[in-house]
Amino acid sequence: MSRAFRELLKKIGSGAHTSKDLTRAEAAQAMTMMLTQAATPAQIGAFLIAHRIKRPTGAELAGMLDAYEQLGPKVPAINSAQPVVILSQPYDGRDRTIPLSILTALVLAAAGCPVLQHGGERMPTKEGIPLIDLWRGLGVDWSGCSLAQIQQILEATNLGFVYLPTHFPQAQALVPYREQIGKRPPLATLELIWSPYAGPCHVVAGFVHPPTETMIQEALTLRGVTEFTTVKGLEGSCDLPQERTAIIGLYSVVDGEASLTRLRLHASDYGLGGKNPAWANLNDSIVAMEAVLDGRFNQLRQALLWNSGFYLWQYNDFENLTEGIQQAAKLLDSGQVKQQLKYLKQVCDTHFQKFCSL
Fold first, then answer.
1. Helical packing angle, 282-293 and 101-110, nearest 10°
2. pLDDT value of residue 356
3. Nearest-angstrom CA–CA distance, 222 and 354
4. CB 153 within 8 A of CB 160
5. Interatomic CA distance for residues 73 and 146, integer angstroms
6. Using CA atoms, how far apart are residues 17 and 169, in angstroms rounded to an integer?
7. What CATH code is carried by the domain that includes residue 62?
8. % of the chain surpassing 90 pLDDT
9. For 131-161, what is each residue's pLDDT tens digit?
10. What is the pLDDT of residues 24-53, one digit of tens each?
C-alpha cells in the first residue's frame, strides 16, 4: 500500500461536506502513482470512483495531463507549416451515431492539413465502436506502428494515429478499472484533451455537459495552451450534429488575454440538415463510408460535408463556412479523398513490410 497515495485518496474521498480538491501538483502525483502502479489496485479503484463522485476541477485535469506529458508517448514533430489538428473522440466509442472523424481527417489530409487521432480498442463502460475498428474497416491498421513510423506516415500522408495498447501501456493498464467501477472515471475527460504530439498542435475536444467544457478550458489554459476548440458534439465527440444547433467554442490567448468566440451553427442553413447518421453495425458503416469516398450521395455524405467543411474553414484559411463546404465537396467529387486513403494504405503497408523484415 502507498501511504502517500492514501493521503491523496482521503482528501478527495471523505464525502460531500469534507472532501477537498487536489492541487495541480497533487493531481499529477496521483496520476503518476496510478500509471506506474505505485498505488495498489484497491487504491486506484477507490480513487477513480471517488474522483468521479467529487467531479474533477480544471486544475486537477491539468495536473493529470502533466503526468501524461511526463510518462506518455509523443509522436515526434513533423515538418509542417501549420499545427497538427488533434481530433478527439471518447475512448469508449459510439453506439448511436456513425463516427465521422476518420472521414473528416481524410478530407483535411487531402487538403494539406495534418491530423492526429488517438484511442484504443472497445472500452468500458459504453463499449461503443472505437476509431481503430473503423480504420481497420477501411484497410488501415495502426496498431503495429511504432511512434517513429507514425511520425513518418503523418509527415507523408497528413494522417496519424496513436494506439493506446501499443504506445501507452501504462494508461492501457487502467482500462479494466472502468469495468470494475461501472462508471466513466475522470480519465475519460482527460483523454479528450490529451495531445500525444511533440510539435505545434490544435486540440479539438468534444463534450456533452457545459461544466465539462469549463473544466477543459481551465485545464488547457493552466497548461499554457493558447488555442483550442471545444464542440458540443455527437456522443461527446468532435463531430458536429445536424439535427440540432452545433455549439462551438474557439479559444485563444492573445497578448496574455484569453478570449472565447462562441459559434452556434445550423446545418439546415447550409442545406445540410437532417438526421444524424445512425449507427447499425460496422459492416454497414464501412459500406456507407466507401460509398461517400466513391462520390456517391447518401446521408453520410451530408454529415461529412457539414463536418469537414467546418474544419476546413477553421484550419485551412477559407473565407467562410460555405467555402469550406464547397471545397470538401470538390475534394470528394474529384476522388482526391479516396486517393488520399489509397496513398495512406500504401505508405502504411510499406512501413509494415519494413517492420516484418527486421
1. 20
2. 45
3. 42
4. yes
5. 10
6. 36
7. 1.20.970.10
8. 93
9. 999 999 999 999 999 999 999 999 999 999 9
10. 999 999 999 999 999 999 999 999 999 999
Same domain, 58 and 110: no
> What pLDDT is recorded for position 254?
82
Question: Looking at this protein, which amino acid is placed at residue 174?
Answer: L
Domain span at residue 212 reads 84-337
Q: What percent of the chain has pLDDT over 70?
A: 98
- What is the grid cell recorded at 257? 488575454
72-85 pLDDT, tens digit per residue, is 999 999 999 999 99
Here the cell at position 100 is 465521422
Q: Which residue has the cell 495541480?
A: 24
Q: Tally Cβ neighbours within 10 Å of residue 354.
A: 11
**Which of 211, 250, 247 minimizes the C-alpha distance to 232?**
247
Long-range contacts of 251-257 (CB under 8 A, 24+ apart): 251/217, 251/220, 251/221, 251/227, 252/226, 252/227, 253/221, 253/226, 253/227
Q: Return the C-alpha cell found at 148.
A: 517513429
What does residue 256 show for φ and ψ, rounded to 5 degrees? 80, -5
Total domains in the chain come to 2
Which residues, 6 or more positions from 177, have their beta carbon under 8 angstroms from its beta carbon? Answer: 41, 44, 45, 48, 185
Torsion sign, CA atoms 183, 188, 189, 190 = positive
Q: Are 35 and 133 in a shared domain? A: no
- Give the E-state strand segments of 27-140 in sequence order: 84-87, 115-119
Set of cell numbers at residue 78: 513533423
Q: 93-114 burial, b for 16+ CB within 10 Å, e for fewer? A: bbeebbbbbbbbbbbbbbbebb
CB-based contact 60:193 (threshold 8 Å): no
What's the one-letter identity of residue 327?
Q
Same-domain pairing of 159 and 281: yes
* Strand 246-254, strand 227-231: pairing: antiparallel
